[in-house]
Amino acid sequence: MENDIFKALADPSRRKLLDLLHASDGRTLSDLCEPLDMSRFGVMKHLNILEEAGLITTRKIGREKLHYLNAVPIRHIYERWVSKYAERWVIGLTSLQNELERDTNMDMKPRNINQIAIKAKPEQVWQALTDPAKTSKFWFNCAIRTTWEIESPFELWNGEEKKAEGIILEMDPPKKLMMSWRFVSFPGTEMDTPSRITWEIGSHAELHGVTLVTVVHDEFENAMSTAKILENGLPIVLSGMKTFLETGESLAGE
């Protein structure tokens, strides 16, 4: 899988496509063709290579196929090949500003999508996500407290400090978990309304014993600071989950 990622990143046109999606996520093929001096077929070919490498994900919204940047594989490569040779990687979660821009036609589209393949069963992924003793190994030392019933509240705690809270909106073990989300201890998020996080868990269509985990963050029109924090944080959470389930170890720096 890492070879596919490095191969995909080697081409400047594919790196340009990733830059375009980083600047504005959830774009159609036509949108992505405009800045590139190549045929529609050529752009489609590059997008297919990026999707096969896991660097982008796609969603069908109405009649349109939308393309989203998937930051998790790059984050995992960072942990594998860069972080152990560099100083501890730090994200300034407490100094974020409302920097996300939202197009006027994005009302019906999920915005932030992250995906990762984990060598584990869906049941193991579900247990890691819902067992506080396991969650604390990859979610910035935080544990989720809830009764795991639909419409029940949940809280995310780091020791004695509550970091986030919400409501369990939908639950279908071990396939799907949907929850509302609101930060309670990050400066700049005080006025944010609850947004929504959806975990989709399923067996990989081609790789036996591998589970594909997709996390969608949406409904954050009035929670842009929260969206920016999760845009940076969720790839780390997913990368940490993969490391924990496959090796039993926690990511350095959590």
List descriptors.
alpha+beta; 8 helices; Alpha-D-Glucose-1,6-Bisphosphate, Chain A, domain 4; 26% strand; single chain; 254 residues; globular; 7-stranded antiparallel β-sheet; two-stranded antiparallel sheet
Structural write-up:
It is a single chain. This protein is α+β, with helices and mostly antiparallel strands. The chain has a domain at 107-247: START domain (Alpha-D-Glucose-1,6-Bisphosphate, Chain A, domain 4, 2-Layer Sandwich). Helix content is 34%, strand content 26%. It is built from 8 helices and 9 strands. The protein has helices spanning 2-9, 12-23, 29-33, 40-52, 72-82, 122-130, 132-135, 224-247; strands at residues 56-61, 64-69, 112-118, 143-146, 153-158, 161-172, 176-183, 195-203, 211-218. The strands form 2 sheets. A 7-stranded antiparallel β-sheet has the order 3-9-8-7-6-5-4. A hairpin with a 3-residue loop joins strand 6 and strand 7 (176-183). Helix 1 runs antiparallel to helix 4 (40-52) and helix 5 crosses helix 8 (224-247). The longest helix is centred in the last third of the chain and has 24 residues, at 224-247. The protein is globular, with a radius of gyration of 18 Å. The model is unreliable at 84-107 (pLDDT under 50). Keywords: DNA-binding. InterPro entries: ArsR-like_HTH, ASHA1/2-like_C, HTH_ArsR_DNA-bd_dom, START-like_dom_sf, WH-like_DNA-bd_sf, WH_DNA-bd_sf. One of its GO terms (molecular function) is DNA binding. Belongs to the AHA1 family. It comes from Paenibacillus lautus.
